[in-house]
Design goal:
Structural class: mainly alpha
Largest sheet: 2 strands, antiparallel
Mean pLDDT: 83
Low-confidence stretches: none
Shape: elongated
Number of helices: 4
Radius of gyration: 25 Å
Bound molecules: zinc ion
Distance between the termini: 48 Å
Strand content: 5-15%
Helix content: 40-55%
Length: 107
């Protein structure tokens, strides 16, 4: 990660954790866990609350939700393509199913 300006090597809250970015509010260095991105700007928990008026956890919850939604959508897509493939295979002539490769797939 290339920071535009030199910043402290360790998080302001966690002296043993490496700095991920600098808070745009207080200019202190923080690790990945301690900063939240708002409109392309990074804020520490305290400044984030001041800036948005929303506790940091709300943003986290939404992030977890969006990841879960993407996962469900991905699984649904997989299931759908498997379902469509199965439909196509079942519509093929019976002689086609005699082939061992298709038999193995349907099992
Ligand atoms: Zn701050
Ligand atoms: Zn930290």
């Amino acid at each position: 990660m290339n920071a535009p300006h030199p910043i402290a090597a360790f998080c302001h809250n966690h002296p043993h954790r490496e700095t991920a970015s600098r808070c745009m509010g207080c200019s202190l260095a923080f690790c990945r866990e301690c900063v939240t991105q708002v409109e392309r700007r990074m804020f520490c928990a305290g400044c984030y609350k001041t800036y948005t008026g929303v506790p940091k956890t709300k943003n986290r919850d939404w992030f977890v939700f969006s990841v879960a939604a993407q996962l469900v959508a991905g699984l649904a897509g997989l299931w759908l393509s498997a379902y469509v493939a199965g439909k196509i295979l079942s519509k093929l002539p019976a002689s086609f199913h005699e082939g061992t490769i298709w038999k193995r797939l349907s099992d």
